[in-house]
Amino acid sequence: MKVVILAGGRGTRIAEESKLTPKPMIRIGEEPILWHIMKEYSHYGFNEFIICAGYKQQVIKEWFNNYMLYNSDITFDFSEDEKKIIVHKKNYEPWKVTIVDTGLDTLTGGRIKRVKEYLNNETFMMTYGDGVSDIDIKKLLEFHKSHGKLATLTSYVIEQQKGVLKVDRHGTIKEFREKNIIDGSLINAGYMVLEPQVLDYIAGDETVFEKEPLEKLVSDGQLAAYKHNGFWKCMDTMKDKEELESLWNSGQAKWKVW
Question: The pTM is what?
Answer without folding.
Answer: 0.88
